[in-house]
Design goal:
Elements: E1 3-9, E2 16-22, H1 28-60, H2 65-78, H3 86-114, E3 118-121, H4 147-159, E4 170-173, E5 180-186, H5 191-196, H6 202-207, E6 211-214, H7 224-229, E7 230-234, H8 245-262, H9 282-287, E8 305-306, E9 320-330, E10 335-344, E11 349-354, E12 361-363, H10 366-369, H11 373-376, H12 383-393, E13 399-402, H13 405-412, E14 414-415, E15 419-421, H14 422-425, H15 438-446, H16 459-474, H17 513-516, E16 522-526, H18 527-533, E17 538-542, H19 544-547, E18 556-559, H20 563-572, E19 579-584, H21 586-591, H22 597-617, E20 622-628, E21 631-632, E22 638-639, E23 641-647
Parallel strand pairs: 5-19, 5-20, 8-14, 9-13, 13-15, 17-18, 17-19
Antiparallel strand pairs: 1-2, 3-4, 6-23, 7-16, 9-10, 9-12, 10-11, 20-23, 21-22
InterPro entries: REX1-like_exo (IPR034922), REXO1/3/4-like (IPR047021), Ribonucl_H (IPR013520), RNaseH-like_sf (IPR012337), RNaseH_sf (IPR036397)
Enzyme class: hydrolase
Family: Belongs to the REXO1/REXO3 family.
């Protein structure tokens, strides 16, 4: 029989009531559970009460450390209920001591962690150790990263939550504890150079444990500084980044005027604003993991094809097509496309076909795909057949619409430059990175129910819903259906519409220029202006041929003629700035002299030595990144970039 006895423990500040359950005649398992619960409650109470008593006894016995130590044990014992047996008391006291020790260790560890910034990669890093023979993990492959990914990390490390985006490729804990950021750029040095001449970079290997491959900006006709110092923002995200409504409308008007000047077609029809303003820009395509026609060391896109042989420039008159795919799990461990549907603006199904995967289907995932074994028995259409058909159906300036269309294009193994993603143009949560499913969007805005019942999804239905959502937004405004556009403090700021990348650049030959030439699709902010707004100091150390482009920027400029002078200046300025850009041009300058292998190795050793001197001079809690920019090795090939990053 069980009964409850209550004991009131008195304190100077308040009374606490402890219920102690004493068991007799209960089954062993039930009794042990009750006793354990009793011990936990008693231990918790003792810790809470003991903390107050310890503080008082510490004041009394501050000159007698031994007595004070004994006092702690007495406090723990005296806090226990008087009616507990001696054996139980000993057990509880032992537990209390262990808990107190664990609590103290945890507090010390937490305090230490809270004061130190920590960088954790979300993607597999390159193995840059001296003993490694392959930079890549055999089990994991990192998705393509761009220089804007590094830009976002350093911006977030410098100004914290005031940055528009958190880096997608890593997690920075305690960003407010980062003392300053420092970027060292080795111009024209590539990942391939590092891999081939690893013995020339002992300081990089010694000081850095984390490194990632990045797409060299030379692949799309930019330099590292041009790519890094422009912070891209799509026009439809102006309000998300805190721009005043009047400023946003002014910029929209400017973009519309520019569009009409370039394409003097009378703007008419149901659209309330140009549909090109909803297109994902290059940064957003990368952030949303869309397949992009870039060259990587692991050649992850070697089987992908363009959606057109040639493209035309997108305009506000370009046609919209809804695209959706259904997937099944196949023997290669991946989700393979088994149905493809394409719908035009008139809600006409222009293409709908089942697709036979390359590998055997092991799970039809019927509740989602709606695909059955019987449906797939007569199918002979291959993925290559679908790719050719889509090429023949789409106009050269077609805009594809869909919900998280990156998964569909990835399964189709196709590149397409003009995309409107309904998961990014609608937002019901008010949070920038929280997406809402197509089913809920369709129900909320179109008043229709899709993906109902137990017969799986219909790709025709989903494609139609996506294009209807896009058309609905085009009838209203950029803000329509996007609660996040109203979040954040409103400030006024200067924005820049960039020059177009020259289509003649050999680095962006063929169709690739349509993916990276964002002049029509985006506006940019200056990296230095953002830092200045947040009261951060900036320093740029480079050759005069680079610094003269930034004379009007709000920062300190130092033009140096040699790398030795540049490094010396950087060492003197370590404590004076929140962000420092240092570009070493030694290797870039000797490339024009066609150096032999010995000359190349000497140059790499010199660069590594200079970087080593800087790293030895840096103080605690600095975020340091070393960027190997990569370069074009011939007319069409590109050697990619590599970024090494650490917190000192």
């Amino acid at each position: 029989m069980a009964y409850v006895a209550s004991n009131i423990l008195k304190s100077d500040s308040k009374k606490r009531k402890v219920e102690v359950i004493i068991t007799k005649g209960l089954p062993d398992r039930k009794r042990s559970r009750i006793e354990a619960k009793c011990k936990r409650k008693a231990a918790l109470l003792s810790l809470l009460r003991g903390k107050q008593v310890l503080e008082k006894e510490k004041e009394i016995n501050e000159d007698d450390s031994v007595k004070n130590k004994k006092g702690k044990n007495n406090v723990l014992v005296n806090c226990l209920p008087d009616f507990m047996s001696g054996e139980n008391k000993d057990s509880v006291v032992s537990n209390i001591k262990a808990l107190a020790k664990m609590q103290q260790e945890t507090l010390v560890h937490m305090k230490k962690r809270q004061g130190t910034p920590e960088l954790l990669l979300k993607f597999p890093a390159l193995d840059i150790s001296e003993t490694s023979t392959d930079l890549y993990s055999k089990s994991e492959v990192s998705p393509p990263l761009f220089l804007t990914d590094l830009q976002q990390l350093l911006l977030y490390a410098t100004i914290g939550p005031a940055a528009s985006f958190k880096p997608r490729w890593c997690q920075l804990k305690n960003s407010n504890k980062v003392s300053s950021t420092f970027l060292i750029v080795l111009k024209s040095v590539s990942l391939a150079d590092f891999r081939k001449h690893k013995e020339c970079f002992p300081n990089l290997i010694k000081h850095f444990k984390q490194a990632v491959e990045m797409i060299s900006p030379t692949q799309f006709g930019n330099t590292a500084e041009e790519e890094f110092f422009r912070v891209p923002v799509s026009v439809n995200h102006l309000w998300k980044l805190g721009v005043t409504r009047s400023k946003g409308k002014q910029l929209m008007a400017q973009s519309l005027k520019k569009e009409r000047d370039v394409h003097p077609v009378k703007y008419a029809g149901p659209d309330a604003f140009p549909r090109t303003l909803l297109l994902l820009n290059p940064l957003q395509l990368a952030q949303e993991n869309y397949p992009l026609p870039v060259k990587t060391e692991n050649d992850c896109y070697k089987e992908y094809v363009f959606s057109q042989d040639t493209y035309e420039k997108v305009t506000d008159q370009s046609p919209l097509f809804g695209l959706d795919c259904e997937m099944c799990k196949t023997a290669d461990g991946k989700n393979s496309v088994t149905r493809v549907s394409l719908v035009n603006e008139k809600m006409e199904t222009v293409y709908d076909t089942l697709v036979k995967p390359k590998y055997k289907i092991i799970d039809y995932v019927f509740q989602f795909s709606g695909i059955t074994p019987k449906m797939m028995e007569p199918v002979t259409t291959t993925l290559q057949d679908v790719q050719h058909k889509i090429k023949s159906l789409l106009p050269k300036d077609a805009i594809l619409c869909g919900q998280s269309l990156n998964f569909d294009l990835d399964s189709l193994k196709m590149f397409h430059p003009y995309v409107i993603d309904t998961s990014t143009i609608y937002n019901l949560s008010g949070f920038k990175n929280k997406k809402v499913g197509l089913k809920r969007l369709t129900s909320h805005f179109l008043g229709k129910e899709i993906q109902c019942g137990n017969q799986g999804h219909s790709s025709v239905e989903d494609a139609s819903a996506s294009i209807q959502l896009v058309l609905l937004k085009l009838k209203h405004s950029l803000e329509f259906g996007d609660l996040a556009l109203y979040s954040g403090p409103l400030i006024d700021c200067d924005w820049k519409i960039p020059r177009e990348i020259s289509s003649e650049s050999y680095a962006i030959h063929g169709n690739r220029k349509y993916f990276f030439n964002a002049g029509e699709k985006s506006i940019y902010r200056s990296f230095f202006e953002i830092l200045t707004e947040n009261e951060k100091k900036s320093l740029m150390i480079d050759r005069e041929v680079v610094t003269h482009f930034y004379e009007n920027e709000p920062m300190i400029l130092e033009s140096k003629t040699t790398d030795v002078e540049a490094v010396a200046t950087a060492q003197k300025s370590l404590y004076n700035n929140d962000f420092t850009w240092l570009q070493l041009n030694g290797f870039h300058e000797i490339l024009h002299t066609s150096p032999d292998t010995h000359g190349i190795k000497d140059c790499f050793c010199m660069l590594d030595s200079q970087v080593g001197k800087l790293l030895e001079s840096m103080f605690s809690k600095m975020m340091v990144a070393v960027l190997l920019t990569g370069r074009n090795s011939d007319k069409y090939e590109c050697e990619n970039a590599m970024t090494l990053v650490k917190i000192t």
